[in-house]
Amino acid sequence: MIVKIYNENPNPREIERVVSILRDGGILIYPTDTIYGMGCDALNVRAVEKICDLKGINPQKSNLSIICNDLSAISEYAKVDTPTFKLMKRNLPGPFTFILPTTSSLPKIYKNKKTVGIRVPDNPIIREIARALGNPILNTSVKDEEEEIEYITDPELIHEKWSDIAEIVIDGGLGGIEPSTVIDCTSDEPVIVRQGKGVLNL
């Protein structure tokens, strides 16, 4: 199923429709401020495992990332010291993934690496879905190294490719091709481990 939702004023009825699919363990493809993402309710372990399987992600070796609706939700899922919080506050919402130590609120699948990537995208649609769900959203991109650009930017083509896997694809307009900038905040000083779309305001 593909659903059109507008950035400026996400329709509450459509948001609720998406949320009910996520609560049932469904997989969602959604717009962000970077590349279209694929995710699920981040606290639904079975759905998380399904996506890891599909994408060939080994959660014991890779950081899993989650989308929170705002900064206030982050401290429940990650340990954030004051300098890191100030850094995040200067840069979020925005095209950044901050790698932080996990807390006990996240399921065991996230604790293998003891760290989690945190995103608060500058995209009202996915933030509103996370807010309405009351849980973070697992965040992986639909990008594939071999992929033609249209299949990661055009929601109709994304739907054509993934419709047998994702219960719902949100058409939020054309997506980008540049991933987020990833910052590791697990040491004394933040380290940029991948330079992407965002320019970090230190």
TrEMBL record:
GO MF, one example: double-stranded RNA binding
A Pfam family recorded for this sequence: Sua5_yciO_yrdC
Gene3D superfamilies: DHBP synthase
PROSITE patterns, alphabetized: YRDC (PS51163)
Domain YrdC-like: 12-198
PANTHER family: DHBP SYNTHASE RIBB-LIKE ALPHA/BETA DOMAIN-CONTAINING PROTEIN, THREONYLCARBAMOYL-AMP SYNTHASE
Identification of the protein by name: YrdC-like domain-containing protein
Record organism: Petrimonas mucosa
